[in-house]
Amino acid sequence: MEKFRIGIIGATGYAGVELVRLLLLHPLAEISALGSVSFEGKKISEVYPNLLEICDLPCLTNEEVIAQSDVVFAAVPHGMSQELAAQCIQNKCVFIDLGADFRLSDEEDYKQWYGGEFKFKGLHDAAVYGIPELFRGEILGKVLLANPGCYPTSIALALSPALMGGFIEPSGIIIDSKSGVTGAGRGLTQTSHYVDVNENFGAYKVAQHRHTPEIEETLSRMAGEKITVTFVPHLLPINRGILSTCYVKLKEGFTKEHLRAAYAHVYKDEPFVRILPDGLCAAVRNVKYSNICDISIHVDERTNTAVFCSAIDNMIKGAAGQAVQNMNIMLSIPETTGLELIPPAF
Fold it and tell me: Which three-class secondary structure state does DSSP give residue 65?
């Protein structure tokens, strides 16, 4: 089978270079062009020496990347992808956006949380939101995809079976998430300086993080009714990984056994979701460098509270790995291709 030509715009960001690393080993993909505004003209291996003599492609303009590609990944900040998507569709390229421009269906939410507008409403209508385990049937054959955010991925996988099955109360959901520093991107900010992160741990953007509307929209789709949540993210002094702990009220008459049976059924054929046995708790170390999401199920019988813990690598299942998984589905490639990544033991 002829390989697909892959272009990556924003290749020198953390998610972009993870795409490079994954796609270099994909048997049906060939990286044809890399783009970077900040490092245009430089080789990717000059920016990331770990790629020396493995990938020495130069960083080109966005237009050059699109012209040389069958599939384009855009790992760029919000507000930049809509024009890129329009160019790709015009050039008959598949477009996969790792940013936020196509994740929300409501333009008012996008205006409120991102300060922008839908510039090409037809493209937004055509875009599909890509958590494969939940929306696989909508992804196949599409040419424009919104790759989900890292926090929303961990949370949607943790809560969707419980909401779909009606096991938990839809109100009063509290989500406590913790992320490694790579989630903030490659650009340096005061909070990502070494001295501010090292030996520190704290919450940020409490009840006002931009992933909130995406979380609520996805959970509402799964529940079949409007869901609002209290979402509090935290910054961990580690490079990568997300642990989301979700607290919900269990409906009367349901037990942990009901939950375990439902989750086993929903995810029984999912290669990248593991439901942990009793006695184990989801932990970021056990999914590092992989496209796996680990979920552990707990019930506090004293308070009738169900607790779901979900762990992912924010750079893989939360970004580049899920994007490749979505590409595989869109192009009718076996879904796990290029993603058989085993987490290290330490």
Answer: helix
**Encoded amino acid at 124, one letter:** H
- Residues of the chain short of pLDDT 70, as ranges, are 188
Q: What is the DSSP letter of 57?
A: P
Distance CA 321, CA 148 (A): 11
Per-residue pLDDT at 223: 98
3-state secondary structure of 9: strand
Q: Which of 150, 246, 293, 309 is catalytic?
A: 150
According to DSSP, the β-strands at 4-9 and 94-97 are unpaired
Amino acid code (one letter) for 81:
S
Topology given in CATH for the domain delimited by 4-126: Rossmann fold (3.40.50)
Fold equal for 4-126 and 151-314: no
Q: Which residues of 294-319 are buried (b: 16+ CB within 10 A; e: fewer)?
A: bbbbebeeeeebbbbbbbbbbbbbbb
| pLDDT for position 67 | 98
Q: Cα(313)–Cα(323) distance, rounded to whole angstroms?
A: 13
Q: For residue 191, how many other CB atoms are within 10 A of its CB? A: 13
Q: pTM for the full model?
A: 0.96
- The yes-or-no answer on residue 150 being catalytic is yes
Tokens coding 230:
């209290």
As a whole number of angstroms, the distance between CA 310 and CA 318 comes to 12
> What is the CATH topology of the domain spanning 151-314?
Dihydrodipicolinate Reductase; domain 2 (3.30.360)
The dihedral over CA atoms of 101, 329, 227, 159, expressed in degrees to the nearest 10, equals: -130
Instruction: Give, to the nearest 10 degrees, the angle between helix 212-223 and helix 107-114.
Output: 150
Q: What are phi and psi of 243, to 5 degrees?
A: -120, 120
Question: Which tokens belong to 42?
Answer: 């430089």
Q: What is the mean pLDDT of the chain?
A: 96
pLDDT digits (tens, 9 = 90+) for 54-112: 999 999 999 999 999 999 999 999 999 999 999 999 999 999 999 999 999 999 999 99
H or E stretch at 33: strand 29-35
Q: Where are the domains of the chain?
A: 4-126, 151-314
